Amino acid sequence: MTPPTERKRRLLLDVTPFRSSRAFTRLWVGTALGSIGQEMTVVTVALQVYAITSSTFAVSLIAGIALGPIIIGGLYGGTLADRFDRRRVAWVASVISWVAIVVLAVHAVLGGTSLWLLYTAATVNAAAGTVGGITRRAIIPRLLPQQLLPAAGALNGINLGLMATLGPLLGATAVNAGGFHTAYLIDVALHCAAFLGVFTLPALRPVDAAPSSPLRAVADGLSFLRRASNVRFSLTLDAIAMGLAQPRVLFPALGAVTMGGGVTTVGVLAAAAAAGTMLMGFFSGWTGSIRRQGQAILVVTYVYGVTVVAAGAVVLVAALRPHPGGTNVAAIAALAVVLAVGGAVDNIGAIYRMAMLQAAVPDNIRGRVQSLYTLVVTGGPRIGDVVSGVVASALFLWSPLLAGGLVMILLTWVLTRRTPAFKDYDAENPQP
Question: Transmembrane region positions (predicted)?
């Protein structure tokens, strides 16, 4: 192989996991299609609540109300994944999520405007999706060898990028073209693909079952996390980023008031970060060659904080200088670029965090540790939504971004000084 060809191979996405495991390929495809529909529903529920209430705070309550069930489902979901056949757990979770989406679709077809039903169905959908996501991530190391886990993480980054890029755009387009019910019905169809990806897996019974007591099983997971300083610090950094730097709850108000463009602006901004995530995934071949993955996580955390501050600056300028034409295309484009850069660097961190969790954590407790990670990546943004909604309602739309990004950078610096060993984490000798 010539040097230029070798360099190109190392730069581009590594698809070896697809060639190595057909089961992984089917799981990836099913999850990708189902997740696109899932994100359509997330955006559509937010648009429907805003259409009913014209309140950013009401939109933030979608996340706030779902947080408790997500935490409970996340903790117990990890126990289920460690105690029972992981294929069966993922299947049941997918069915529950699908039923919740059907309820949303029927409600929209009937022209309903019930906030409690929207909040309830969205909560059930999110909680079931949390359990399913935990189980799928715990399955991957059973399908692939350890050296392919970073490549699998990059492929899952592509999956997330497809979900969050196409989902908001398709959701906004479907709402514009046919109403809320159209978006929900598309998700009902796409979600069926998730069934196929899970149903065709081999049996995945636990190697060493978790304790029968859910509380004891959860306690074992927390006890492991207390001993696992690298895993714990990685999750802490992610929680800070998720809880302090969430812009998405601001999008409906930005589209309706500050920048103009309405639903289209919401779709573009929601898809921008995912586009960056997906683009980075396509050029992620080099990530598997990095041994000091702890140092890499620290670098991208700082860069992500800078992009959040930059996003706040763009919103501030747009608020101070309203566009005479009604739709501030330049501001929308600038914010989309900043969000895309943030999505790209966050994906690098996600690749290494996932590789660390899957390589350094024993299989018999992996589901419970994945549940703690899932609580961060699903519960964290919902806390961030509430924080951003409250701060924006009390102050200005740009306030949660500028303040959140600066606080995130400061906290990362302080915590890193207290945990200096994290930067030396070695992927070839993974220690939790």
Answer: 27-51, 57-77, 89-110, 116-136, 148-170, 182-204, 233-251, 263-284, 296-320, 332-352, 397-415
